[in-house]
């Protein structure tokens, strides 16, 4: 089972740590669920410590980075979950949908094994006015949009549900793509970019990074985006989808 993160996931857990504010939102969305399946679990971020959790993760390198004492992990894909119908109170998934080969089938599987609810943190492909992709990496936005299911299609596959905006804190410690919106120099760090799968899909990062470096040095980035420096959080299109059964 060869996976993207078996190639790019070295040191992933260093920069992809759970942000406590995002963790609260996810854990609240899980409600009273006592048994939880974490699909596309990676190194185990956001798995609630006060519940019985089983992780599903296809990449061996990511399973190897799970900390001692974390939930047991099964190497499998969302599209074929090796569990009985209604095996868990809840299914959760955090920024994983864009890695699935068949999102509708994977969502049906999540719905099948969940007795009470499915909780997914995803990104709304209808959004996109983020300076990083708008001004420097438009190819990244073009590549990512088809990989994230539209919110309406996601809800339809889950049989309905609610959607909650998830603004990203300015000092977010989980280094996904939008985490450094107020810290632009972070994107110049190769180690930071290695924790963001979208960069691995690009063929040319040197030229856009050179423009960003020059704009930071000249003050051009601040002139265009300086208003962001006064904000504590920003809505970048990240959404928490909660579908009750």
Which architecture name of one domain does CATH use?
3-Layer(aba) Sandwich
Fraction of residues in helix? 25-40%
Helical stretch tally? 12
| SSE string | HHHEEHEEHEHHHEEHHHHEE
- Nearest-integer average pLDDT: 92
- Strand content is 15-25%
Query: How is the main sheet built?
Result: 7 strands, mixed
How would you describe what is shown here?
With about 240 residues, this protein is an alpha/beta fold. It has a domain of about 170 residues: Rossmann fold. The strands form 2 sheets. It has a 7-stranded mixed β-sheet, sandwiched between helices. A two-stranded antiparallel sheet has the order 7-8. α4 links the parallel β2 and β3. About 0% of the residues have low confidence.
Question: Can you summarize this structure?
Answer:
This protein has 245 residues and is an alpha/beta fold. The chain contains 12 helices and 9 strands. A 7-stranded mixed β-sheet has the order 3-2-1-4-5-9-6, sandwiched between helices. The chain has a two-stranded antiparallel sheet with strand order 7-8.
Walk me through the topology.
Elements: H1 4-8, H2 12-15, H3 20-29, E1 35-39, E2 52-56, H4 60-64, E3 73-74, E4 88-94, H5 103-113, E5 114-123, H6 131-136, H7 138-144, H8 151-158, E6 162-165, E7 168-169, H9 190-194, H10 197-200, H11 206-218, H12 220-225, E8 233-234, E9 238-244
Features of this protein?
245 residues, alpha/beta, Rossmann fold, seven-stranded mixed sheet, 12 helices, 18% strand, globular
């Amino acid at each position: 089972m060869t996976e993207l993160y078996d190639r790019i996931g070295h040191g992933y857990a260093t920069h992809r740590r759970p942000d406590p504010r995002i963790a609260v939102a996810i854990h609240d969305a899980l409600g009273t669920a006592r048994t939880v399946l974490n699909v596309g679990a990676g190194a185990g971020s956001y798995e609630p410590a006060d519940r019985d959790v089983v992780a599903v993760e296809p990449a061996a390198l990511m399973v190897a980075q799970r900390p001692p004492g974390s939930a047991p992990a099964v190497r499998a894909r969302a599209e074929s979950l090796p569990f009985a119908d209604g095996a868990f109170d809840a299914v959760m998934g955090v920024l994983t949908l864009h890695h699935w080969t068949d999102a509708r089938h994977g969502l049906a599987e999540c719905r099948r094994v969940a007795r009470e609810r499915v909780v997914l943190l995803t990104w709304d492909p209808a959004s996109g006015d983020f300076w990083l992709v708008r001004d420097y990496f438009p190819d990244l936005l073009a590549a990512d949009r088809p990989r994230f299911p539209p919110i309406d299609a996601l809800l339809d596959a889950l049989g309905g549900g609610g959607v909650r905006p998830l603004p990203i804190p300015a000092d977010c410690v989980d280094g996904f793509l939008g985490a450094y919106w107020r810290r632009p120099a972070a994107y110049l760090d190769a180690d930071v970019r290695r924790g963001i799968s979208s960069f691995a899909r690009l063929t040319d990062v040197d030229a856009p990074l050179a423009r960003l470096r020059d704009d930071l040095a000249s003050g051009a980035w601040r002139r265009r985006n300086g208003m962001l420096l006064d904000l504590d959080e920003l809505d970048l299109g990240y959404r928490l989808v909660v579908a009750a059964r």
